Amino acid sequence: MDQRISAAPGSEAPEFLFAGFRLEPDGTLFRGESQIHLPPKELAALKMLIANAGRVVTPLELQKALWGDVHVTGDSVPKCVSSLRARLQPETCIQTLYKRGYRFAAGVRTRGVTHDAPPRLVILPFTTGFGVPEHLGPVIAEEAMARLSSARPVVVCVLARDSVFTLVRRGLTAQQTGEALHADLVLAGAISALPMHFRLRIEMIRISDGTQIWVEDVLVRRDLVAGVESELVERLAFRLGSEDAPWLRAWRTESLALAASAQDSATSEDESADESATHRLEAYQVFQRAHHEWQSLQRHRMQDGLQHLMRATELDPSLIGARVDLVNLCISQCFYGFMSPAMEADIVRRTVDAVPDLPAQSEAVLPALGWISFHYDRNLPEALRLMSLSSHLPHDPWITRVRSMLAMSRHHFTQAIEELQNSIQLDPYAPWLHARLAWALHLAGRADESLEQIRRALNLFPEHEGASLYGAVILAFNGSTAHAISLAQELSERLPHFDLASSVHAYALARAGRRDEAHSMLERLQWLSRERFFLKSFLPAVYVALGDTEAALAELRASDDSRCPWFFQMLADPRLAELRGNPDFEIMREALAEMEAAAAREPEPTV
Fold first, then answer.
1. Contact at 8 Å (CB) between 222 and 197?
2. Is the pTM here over 0.70, yes or no?
3. At 97, which CATH number?
4. Taking a C-beta distance cutoff of 8 angstroms, is the pair 191, 128 a contact?
5. What is the largest CA-CA distance in the chain?
6. What single string gives the DSSP state of each residue in 145-175?
7. What is the distance between the alpha carbons of residues 309 and 304, in angstroms, rounded to a whole number?
8. Beta bridge mates, 339
């Protein structure tokens, strides 16, 4: 089967339908049969937001689209969007994302359009047969997702990786996964091993009727499998009618260069050129293995991934993907307590410093660098500047994590909750999003909503580490201690090196009145802290539950001194409410107020 995925022909201009409204081709807006007058600038803003529905549009993008090079005041865009939003009430079609821009959140349908809206595509992790490295299946799928998602103009709407992979792990078929995510198309594949080649079998399924509309076999030499995602993307682009797009030509060049490296390493008589080509190919292969390895909560796998990524950047300093992964891995290890904040900050800075023209070459590391500026340097203005530079980046598991954690650490809980809720709309089966939303509600003091959300997360993702960790905290705080103890104990046994789980287990025991067991666990944790780095931020809540205020304050001071990434969130944690009013505790809280005051004195970051 070899057919293009094309749209049905229609009229020359589109009619947009959204949230009870109809925007006709001539720019006339109707709610039902009632016409709504829109001034020219608001109409232009509405058209741009609809054309980019689901994506964050920055104020600068709107300003250029509406006024071009004409100088306007800084409040022109917010006033225009605010007026437009008022005309669309009571529907909340336009979301404002703090410091980032605006997103059109309503579902949009088109009628009478020459080209259909981009199809919604699910890319499943490829299955791997005997003799095929396990990491190849998910890595090829993820690379294809990333490349298609960043293509401009948009040719296909690639659905979120975490939701896709979660549903696949549950055993859903390609058809079921596509239906659960309301996709139009599903791309599935399998990799099998031959003596000298890997065979990739690719198939495209149309969800509406389950028809297989495209199937193809691709043979790839084993030594050229690195970069095969470029071949996959090229074939997809052909089916989508975008084979001549500039973004595809650039990646085709990159793929050919990687293949040339492999060929050069096999045939070159120039030893220096041969060594360089070999290093480049080896770096990409090491990066692929590491990318699969580190995305877990297994301490040894994350540390192996760290070593692989550092090796990849040594072999090929220009491999930006490995640097992005290395930065994200360090941030993750510090959050989990597997790496000290000092080591995290050092590796992140050295990794980023080696990237020339950082904003242009690797925007994806800017949120992580902003996080380091905040929690390690305590430099909020610089953190906000870096976040502003990356405000246009779409939802991504690592970017959204840093954005929401920064908002929570600043005690901007409404912002964090909105960020997480918006991301869940895009990525509905991402376990960490659901669990972290419950945590944000907990920190905001919205106990009933927090409890409801964590129960929802535990029901959806009963085996997920994040749901169990936050679940044990929230359930214990709200009196469901037996369930909390069960969750924390199971998590501690499954991940014995995950010290945060042990801290939460001790808290649940203390809340249940099992003081001796809680003290015993605290003694063991203090003993472990003499042997390795130990993240102490969750211990103050245990001591508060045991009535030991001085010990709780001592652990908070230790967390502050070590620049623990959870420190500022702990200062808002309802579990530590008994410490409020204590002079030492209030001094710690005042440090955040001083950082906010310093940021307020700085000029507004330019988006």
1. yes
2. yes
3. 1.10.10.10
4. yes
5. 76
6. HHHHHT-SS---EEPPHHHHHHHHHTT--HH
7. 9
8. none
Tokens representing 203 are 């198939």
Q: Is the residue at 338 inside a domain?
A: no
- Based on the fold, state whether residues 413 and 548 are members of the same structural domain: yes
Per-residue pLDDT tens for 75-125? Answer: 889 889 988 888 887 666 888 877 778 888 777 777 654 445 678 999 999
Structural domain of 105 = 15-111
Residue type for 429, please? Answer: Y
pLDDT band at 259 (very low <50, low <70, confident <90, very high): low
Considering the domain architecture, whether residues 132 and 106 belong to the same structural domain is answered as no
| pLDDT tens by residue, 496-542 | 889 999 999 999 999 999 999 999 999 999 898 888 888 988 999 99
Is residue 280 in a domain?
no
Residue 181: which region, alpha, beta or left (left: phi > 0; alpha: psi -120 to 50)? alpha
**What is the rounded distance in angstroms from the CA atom of residue 564 to the CA atom of residue 402?**
14
Q: How far is CA 447 from the centre of its chain?
A: 26
For 94-111, the DSSP string reads EEEETTTEEEE-S--EEE
Is 326 inside a domain boundary? no
The CATH number given to whatever domain includes residue 127 is 3.40.50.10070
The residue type at 62: L
CA dist list (Å): 160 to 5, 157, 352, 426: 21, 9, 26, 7
Domain CATH number, residue 528:
1.25.40.10
**51 and 191 housed in the same domain:** no
Same domain, 415 and 536: yes
Contact (CB, 8 A) for 39 and 87: no
| CA dist., res. 387 & res. 393, Å (int) | 10
